Structures are given as C-alpha cells and as structure tokens.
Amino acid sequence: MHFYTYLSLALYFLAMLGIGLFAYRNSTSDISGYILGGRQVSPHVTALSAGASDMSGWMLMGLPGAMFLTGFDTVWIALGLVLGALANYLLVAPRLRVYTEMADDALTLPDFFDKRFNMSKGPIRVISAAVIILFFTLYTSAGLVAGGKLFESAFGLSYHLGLIITVSVVVAYTLLGGFLAVSMTDFVQGCIMFVALILVPIVAYMQFNGSADMLNFAQQSIPSFSESWQSITLLGIVSSLAWGLGYFGQPHIIVRFMAIRSVKDIKTARNIGMSWMTVTILGSLGTGLVGVAYANKFGLQVADPETIFVIFSEILFHPLISGFLLAAILAAIMSTISSQLLVSSSSLTEDVYRAFSKTEVEQKTLVKIGRIGVFAVALVATLLALDKSNSILSLVSNAWAGFGAAFGPLVLFSLCWSKITHQGALAGIVVGAATVLFWIFAPVLSDGGTLSSVIYEIVPGFIASSLAIVVVSKLSQAPSAEVKETFHATEQKLEQLS
Fold first, then answer.
1. Is residue 401 situated within a structural domain?
2. Domains: count for the chain
3. Which positions, given as ranges, span the membrane (predicted)?
4. Which of 122, 190, 181 is nearest to 339 (CA)?
5. How far apart are CA 119 and CA 130, in angstroms?
6. Does 486 reside within a domain?
7. What is the pTM of this model?
8. Residues 205-222: tens digit of each pLDDT
9. What Rg do the C-alpha atoms of the chain give, in angstroms?
10. Rounded to a whole number, what is the distance in angstroms from the first to the last CA of the chain?
11. What is the residue range of 80's domain?
12. Which residues lie below 8 Å from residue 127, measured CB to CB, with a gap of 6+?
C-alpha cells in the first residue's frame, strides 16, 4: 500500500475524531443533547445523515457484490429501497417530528411508544428496547465484518486487526460527541460516498468501448436484463421490493426525523436525501455491473465479489485517490455503526436504566451511562463479527427485516390510526419479530431449509404484525380520551404547519 493512501486514510480518521471532540464540547451536557442533538439538526445534515447511516458498508460492498454475482435481479432491491425511503419521508417524517415533541418530548422510539399510549414505564417500552438492542447488535456486527474485510483486502492486515481498528475509531467519536458527532460525521461521510460512487463506476466504464462492449463482457457471467426479467418469479420481485418496507421501522434512520429542527425543513431534507440516494444506488449497481465485465475482459480474479469496489480503488487510481475511495468505504461502514451504537445506547439509557430507576438520575450520569452502553453493544457486536465468513448482505437483510416487521407497522399505525391500543402495539412488535426469527431460523422445509429461501422474511413479518395490531386493537379496550386528544392535536398541528 502506497504512502499517499495511508496519508489519506490517516487524515480521514483524524477528521472523524476531530468532529467527535467538537461535538463533545458543544452538545453533550444533557441526555437530550447526547441522544437527539437538542432537536436542532439542519435539513442538510439530516438528509445526508439519514442516507449515510442507512447505506452502510453494504452500499459499497454488499450491493455491488450482489450485482456481480446475480446480475440485474439486484435492481429490484434498489427500486424497493428508493420507493421505501421516499414513502418514509412522506408518511413518517413530519408526523413523527411533531408527535414525539407533543408526546412529552419523547427522545427514543420506545419512549415514543410508551408516551403515545399514555403508559408509565409500560411493557412496550422494555420490549421494544429489547428488540432494538437484539437486532442492532446483529446489524452492527455486519458493519464490523465489512470493516474487517476492507482492511484485509486493501491493506493486507489480518481480518481481526481490521475489525479492532474499525470499532475503535467509531466508538471513540460516538462516545465523545453523541448524536451531534454522529450526524456531523455522517454528513461528511455522505459527501465522500457520493463522490466515490460516481467516480469509480465511471472510470471503470471508460476501460470499455461503449455500453455494448461492457454488456457483452458482463453477460459472459450474468444473464442479460431481458433474460433476468423472464426468469425472475413473482415471489422474487415481491421479496426484493419488500426491502422498502423496512424503512418504516429502522430506529437509526427515523430518529433523524425526530431530531430535525423544524417540520418545515423536512421537505428540503427529503429533496436532498432522495437525490443523494438515487445517485449513490445507481453508482453502487454500476460498480457491480462494470466489475463483472472488467473481470471477464481483463481476466481479473475476484475471490470475494463484495470487495470489487476495493479492487477498483486500488488498480484504477493514483494512490492518493485510492486512499480517498477506501475512506468512502470506511465512511459507509462507520456512519451506520455509529448510528446503531447510539440508538442502542439510547435505549439502554432512556428505556431501561432511566425508566426503571427508583430515583431521579442526574443528566451527567445519564450521559455517562449512555457512553457505557455504546461500549457494551460494540463489544458484543465485535464478538459476533469474529467469524469473517458472514455475508454482509445476509446479516443486513436479517436485521433489516427484524426492525421492519417489528416496528414498521407499529410506527405507521401509531402515527396514522387513532384507534390503535397499547395491547395491539405489543402484539404487533412480538408477532412481527417472532415471525421474522421463525422465517430465518426454523428448518421447516423438506430439505431442512428455512422459509426465507422462499420469500424474504420481512413480507410475512410485516403482514403478520399489521394483522396483529388491527385485530388485537379491535378486541381490546379503546384508547383513553387523553390518548385520542393528543393524536388529534398532532393532526391539527400538522395541518397548520402544512
């Protein structure tokens, strides 16, 4: 590895730690500042922070790898994600921003659920916090796997050393600066990812004599688009598009909507966020497609398709640019890990420790507990990531489905349906999460396979959770007058702001 490459990466690491130190000095004196940045985040930072924390290492490694292996079938996943993100901005963002503030300034998603149903330390808070900690630990391990693979393939370091470097830097700036540090670093990382995902596929494409030449070489390994269209099944399309359903229940994404400084800023954030996402997803797919064509044309050996972006970074660019591009992968990985660590820590602090503490806890103590939570979740996720054979996309898909099914329907019903009850909400979380886990792990098929090989687990999980919410809500006692009043007051405020 060239000196200039190491220099680029060193500057990147220093910048991230510098942002963490700046945020430490400006926003972490109380728990609201540590968890939500005082609800004063700008729309530009909100948009790129949501995008960068969403599009983790799988954007630069998992998705190009899937395109490299399976071809145009991967496009359906990308389409589902774009549609889901847009729906999230339209349906969830404005309502959640208003409702969480009116619901006694709820700081976390479990806190919102608890206050939405006028519960005081109710079971829904603990159960939802447990789901967050469980699936985020799995999700965080996916990011750490990506970090370990990057350092192994790009720098020749051992996988486990790369794992330690990745988690150390992320934990350092997350511990220091909390939500403000995470959001600001996400903004910078989102900009780096945007440039990288334009630059790499375009430069790689320039090695061919036009699109026809590139596609001819690509189709030596993957089916053409028309062949892919003819061979894909309806269940395959549904499974891929269903990735978009996951957005409604991703705590590390929708918490950005809670922290934006004004509902009126959401439209600006949406325009920026969706533009960023469209370009980066096209760049990610393009990297995989051009990658398989390049490998066939030049006889490039690609042992792990998920490292094609890394390979391009090393062979097509000056070492200084290579360092920047490798920093883009680290940016994607770290932005998501830091967001997940902070949300998990927030749940441990607000929804477990503070909610069930018998005495009033000082703000500084809560911030300390939050930092301990960051370290604890990171430690467990690191242990899970020690097995480098784990597929990044597989780990992400499981955690994405878990959150999407457990929280997605509940978030939508809580924001849009006045008749949902506390019992219905509990049923939705439990049934959604249980369905996903059953679909992933139960060997019920004749060959010992699981149902996730038939259809993506988020589909049955989302449906089952929605049915459970509606049925149990109708069978249980109607919400109290106070709960209904808060719901209608939120609707009225939204109308006034719009």
1. no
2. 1
3. 6-24, 75-92, 126-147, 159-180, 187-208, 228-248, 269-295, 315-344, 365-386, 392-417, 424-442, 454-472
4. 181
5. 17
6. no
7. 0.84
8. 999 999 999 999 999 999
9. 22
10. 54
11. 3-392
12. 426, 429, 430
